[in-house]
């Protein structure tokens, strides 16, 4: 299985739960990069900014005649972030070995999801970082994580 994992793109100023113009540009780039990857599942939190990051990818895959399921995995349940991470991992582990998926999360969820997928704990994502894109190749409980940067550099 291949999983692309990333933090949502840049949000609007003032804490609004929506993408800024820079975030929309980054989301469009992500769509261009992954539309032909074979991705068929995108897992997002219940935050609008995660879903808005994945939306251009959903549209780009559809434009090529395929379907990409956009599934919301709530982070506001009784188990909070831990429950969200657990539910994302459960959905990913249920996929066939040849599956390609995308996880759009947050600074506090992407690391634990990657660690749960393949045991590797990548460097933390800073509050000001939006350009990290992790590619995970996994077979069962073992896997490899590769870090890439995409779009405009953030710090």
List its salient traits.
155 residues; alpha/beta; Rossmann fold; 6-stranded mixed sheet; 4 helices; 6 strands; 34% helix; 23% strand
How would you describe this protein?
- Helix 1 (21-34) runs parallel beside helix 2 (48-63) and helix 3 packs across helix 4 (110-118).
- The protein has 155 residues and is α/β, with parallel strands linked by helices.
- The chain has one domain: Rossmann fold.
- The chain has 4 helices and 6 strands.
- The model has no long low-confidence stretch (mean pLDDT 94).
- It has helices at residues 21-34, 48-63, 80-93, 110-118, and strands at residues 2-7, 41-44, 69-72, 100-105, 132-139, 142-149.
- A 6-stranded mixed sheet has the order 3-2-4-1-5-6, with helices on both faces.
How large, in whole angstroms, is the Cα Rg?
A: 14 Å
Order of helices and strands: EHEHEHEHEE
Category from helices, strands and their pairing: alpha/beta
How much of the residues is beta strand, in percent? 15-25%
Spatial separation of the terminal alpha carbons: 30 Å
Number of separate structural domains: 1
How many helices in DSSP terms?
4
CATH class: Alpha Beta
Uncertain spans: none
Mean of all residue-level pLDDT scores? 94
